[in-house]
Design goal:
Strand content: under 5%
Distance between the termini: 17 Å
Number of strands: 2
Shape: globular
Strand order of the largest sheet: 1-2
Largest sheet: 2 strands, parallel
Helix content: 40-55%
Number of helices: 7
């Protein structure tokens, strides 16, 4: 992001977001921006699979709008999750919440393994960057 990218307050990124630098777009699309989170996994602060954390500003808004939103905090957040592999990141918070709660209710080693497999498949096939809106939320 450029300096002072959110000087007027937090916003979701969008298609052709002028706040993004070329380097930032490359890091995001290549998933290199996720590497520092491995330190958080080692420290036990997050897991590889779980609901993606939301920035505090949006978390507070969603908690008020969706009473079940805080249920996402029952498990550690993750780098990838059930909503991500279902291409939900660019949709409404309600849809993301639906998949996150489904994950929490059905959490298992095998479901985590499935999510990891699908995530790596998307990353290495290039489909994840093309078929999701990780950088360009609408």
């Amino acid at each position: 992001m450029i300096v002072n990218a959110e000087k007027n307050g937090p916003v979701f990124s969008k298609k052709n977001d002028l706040r993004c630098t070329r380097v930032g777009v490359f890091l995001r699309n290549s998933y290199l921006d996720e590497l520092p989170q491995l330190i958080n996994i080692i420290k036990g602060e997050i897991t590889f699979v779980g609901p993606r954390p939301e920035r505090p500003y949006f978390h507070n808004i969603f908690c008020k709008k969706y009473p079940s939103w805080e249920k996402r905090l029952r498990v550690l957040p993750g780098i990838t999750g059930w909503a991500q592999v279902h291409n939900i990141t660019s949709h409404t918070p309600a849809k993301k919440l639906k998949y996150d709660l489904e994950y929490i209710q059905n959490k298992s080693f095998w479901l985590d393994l499935k999510i990891i497999f699908i995530s790596f498949h998307y990353i290495f096939s290039g489909l994840y960057a093309k078929n999701t809106s990780r950088l360009h939320k609408n």
